[in-house]
Amino acid sequence: MKLIRDFAVLLACLMVGKGMATLLPFAFPGSILGLFVLFFLLSTQLIPLNWVHDGGQLLLRHMRLLFIPVAAGLLGYADLLSDGLGLMISSALSGLVLILLVVGRLYQRMLP
Predict the structure, then answer these.
(1) Are 34 and 14 contacting, i.e. CB atoms less than 8 angstroms apart?
(2) 73 or 8: which leads in pLDDT
(3) Mean of pLDDT over the chain
(4) Residue 34: other Cβ atoms inside 10 A
């Protein structure tokens, strides 16, 4: 019964986030808004952590299995992905360098 409650709370946050996403005038992932809702509820202690802990642990433990269908679906686009592989790798590396530079600069500015 505890896992059912955990999944119900997580699913309710997801549905609220998806509902909020439909109300926005721009496209935004409802799952991300659902995570923000869950974060808000947990940080304000409107719901206790033990209401979602076991269900979240179960999902995290089996996350590799949840990504198998996505990976199998990507195999259908292997030729398209191989054409843009260089662009994807360069984008990822340049984004990583940019993030490291910005975070490093912000950290230096925060030091007394």
Answers:
(1) yes
(2) 8
(3) 92
(4) 22
Q: Work out the burial of residue 42: count CB atoms within 10 Å of its CB; fewer than 13 is exposed, 13-18 middle, 19 or more buried.
A: middle
- Asked if residue 34 lies in contact with residue 19, where contact means CB atoms within 8 angstroms, the answer is no
Split at pLDDT 50, 70, 90, the class of 58 is: very high
Q: In the predicted model, is pLDDT for residue 14 greater than 90?
A: yes
Q: What are the C-alpha distances in Å from 71 to residues 2, 68, 77, 96?
A: 31, 5, 10, 23
- The identity of residue 46, as a single letter, is L
User: CA triplet 69, 72, 76: central angle to 5 degrees?
Assistant: 135
Helix-strand-coil percent breakdown of the chain, rounded to 5? 85, 0, 15
